[in-house]
Each structure stands twice: as C-alpha cells, then as structure tokens.
Amino acid sequence: MLDKSQKPTWTSFEEATQADWDAVMEYEEAYNAALPERILDAIRSLDEAWTPYPINRYQHSLQAATRAHADGAEDEIVVAALVHDVGDILSPYNHGELAAAMMKPYVSEKCHWILQHHCVFQGYYYNHYWGGDRNARDKYRDSPYWEDARYFCHEYDQCAFDPDYPTKPLEFFEPILRRVLSRGGGHMELNETAAD
C-alpha cells in the first residue's frame, strides 16, 4: 500500500526498487481509472464559442457519434466517432494520429487504423480546395481497412455538421465510452519482448 506521507527518495529509474515500482503501479492504476473523465473533459473542451463551421467541434463530435450509433456501429466505432477530433486541441495538423494513439490500448486494429488515417480520408472532401490531392487516401487502397475508413468518413464525419440533426448529448455516450475503455488497456510496453 502506498504511504502518501513518505516522499520517494529515488531520483532515477535505476535507483528504484520493486517496492518503489509497486507504489508507482498502484498510483497509476488509480490515476488511469479516471481516464474516462479526462477524455470527457477533452471532448467538452471542443465546445468553442465561434467557428467557421456550421456547428463547433464539440457538436460535430457528438453528431458523428450519434450518426454512428444510429447506423448500428459497434461501440468502439461510436467512441471513435466521438473522440476522432479530440487531437485537434494539441495536435491540429495530425490530430488523427493523436486520437489513434490515445485509443490504441482499447480498440481493435481496424478502429485504430480508421482513427489514425481519418484525416487523409477526410481530405477527399476538401484537399483540392487547398491545393492538395483529394485522392491521397488511395495510397492506402491495399489496406484491409480502406473501405472501413472511407465509410467512417463518409457516413459519420464529413456529414456531421448539420445544426438541425437530432444529436444525442455527451451523457448518452458516457457508458459506451466507459465500456470501451474498460477493455484491455494497461501498459502496452509490458507486452513487448526481445523476441518480437
């Protein structure tokens, strides 16, 4: 049990003992149990006052998730639609990679791939207006998830800017998010071996 009154005395990982690492693991388990709240806060932070879009990124995220849910998508895809733009907060030019990294311990390879690549797939709808290649997504045609990413972007993302769409509130998605985050997870580096 972690004795919160004692400050650790080690100053580098090399000095830490098994007891020190046990205390770190106990702390991390408690801290990581609050991950759903931190993700929900990140989603709420997308609720900006002004945007050049018809609705802001918070409303867009809720609408994308609502569309996925209404389409009967599996829970992890609904959650992917909910969190796909959360990376915009810290990493606007590669936000898909940030969202994918955040969700990787909890979702399938397919869902991770969709999140990671949704930006280039979305580019189909606007890249040509900015001097880019709208067909850049075609370089991924050999992926078994190409069609899944195209579908995700076409059916849930690019169309989720309708101010009149009957969008569900964030509270509706909280139990779904918690279910997905309750899968697996943990320290992915512990799954790595020298034989890999």
Automatic annotation (TrEMBL):
Gene3D superfamilies: Hypothetical protein af1432. Residues 57-128 form the HD domain. It comes from the Bacteria. This is HD domain-containing protein. The lineage of its organism: Bacteria, Pseudomonadati, Pseudomonadota, Alphaproteobacteria, Rhodobacterales.
